[in-house]
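Duplicate of #3305? Posting structure anyway:
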């Protein structure tokens, strides 16, 4: 006898519904009716853009080839970049109308602790060790803000709570965008709600969720989801190009993270050949959206800020 979806554990499912959670993964793949403030259903994000030169190549070449990259994400960490380099990232974002997100730098992978270097200890991801690392992470964010950055990738839930509280108190800019990294290892609706309550403006779930799992996340939170369409070899190496239209359909508003299948791993600087492969993969994903989900709208490049203007805010 074959059980129908959600046929079991009905009492627990009803209890979870009373908590504002879906009663299970969304097996019927219901479509999302939500969108970004500009009416777009999806945006394209290229992560692991760890040099100014790589960012400039991706943004200029995508414009020349006729497609839009909405967001560039740096992942080495801000404290690995000079003030001049960070300023150049910000200028490129303004020139090309792209969001620039920088990663908070002093995290476990850079720390002196040995545990994170082991197979078992690697489960802590990039989280912070000790209160001094919280202090330094906040300082890293303040340095980025002074240099014009308004979007940050956060790898620690405690730091997210701190930054969210400081933003609410007016100690940090109100337009600060806090993105939770996939390295936090969160991938269910309850965790997504917690992150939203802590101040997340977008949430990158673990990379290998099924479509029903992604659809359930959308039912639980209002913030944009950041979903991988492809991934480096060290993180699984999958390429979900044919699923991209369905990801947009069930998860909008969503950032499609694509291009990293050209890379071996995270934290590296792409070579010229890898940059070309990244651009090809982004172009393919945009093509597939136009071919298979033509009613889905991609957000365009943000309006260019006048020279000398401050950082652009989310639209």
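Output from current build:
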């Amino acid at each position: 006898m074959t059980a129908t979806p959600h046929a079991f554990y009905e009492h627990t499912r009803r209890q979870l519904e009373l908590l504002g959670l879906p009663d299970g993964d969304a097996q019927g793949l219901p479509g999302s009716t939500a969108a970004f403030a500009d009416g777009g259903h999806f945006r394209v994000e290229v992560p692991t853009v760890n040099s100014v030169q790589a960012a400039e190549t991706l943004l200029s070449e995508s414009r020349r080839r006729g497609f839009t990259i909405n967001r560039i994400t740096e992942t080495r960490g801000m404290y690995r970049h000079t003030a001049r380099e960070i300023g150049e990232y910000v200028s490129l974002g303004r020139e090309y109308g792209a969001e620039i997100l920088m990663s908070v730098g002093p995290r476990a992978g850079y720390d002196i602790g040995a545990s994170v270097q082991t197979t078992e200890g690697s489960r802590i991801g990039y989280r912070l060790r000790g209160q001094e690392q919280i202090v330094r992470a906040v300082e890293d964010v303040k340095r980025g803000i002074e240099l014009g950055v308004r979007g940050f990738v956060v790898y620690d839930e405690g730091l997210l709570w701190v930054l969210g509280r400081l933003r609410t108190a007016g100690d940090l800019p109100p337009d600060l965008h806090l993105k939770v990294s996939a390295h936090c290892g969160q991938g269910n609706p309850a965790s997504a709600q917690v992150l939203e309550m802590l101040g997340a403006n977008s949430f990158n779930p673990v990379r290998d969720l099924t479509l029903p799992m992604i659809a359930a996340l959308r039912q639980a939170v209002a913030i944009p989801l950041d979903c991988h369409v492809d991934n480096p070899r060290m993180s699984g190496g999958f390429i979900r190009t044919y699923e991209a239209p369905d990801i947009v359909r069930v998860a909008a508003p969503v950032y499609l993270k694509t291009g990293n299948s050209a890379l071996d791993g995270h934290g590296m600087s792409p070579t010229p050949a890898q940059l070309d492969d990244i651009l090809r993969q982004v172009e393919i994903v945009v093509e597939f959206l136009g071919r298979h989900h033509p009613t889905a709208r991609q957000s365009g490049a943000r309006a260019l800020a006048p020279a000398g203007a401050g950082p652009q805010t989310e639209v």
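Confirmed duplicate; merging threads. The radius of gyration is 19 Å. The longest helix spans residues 272-292.
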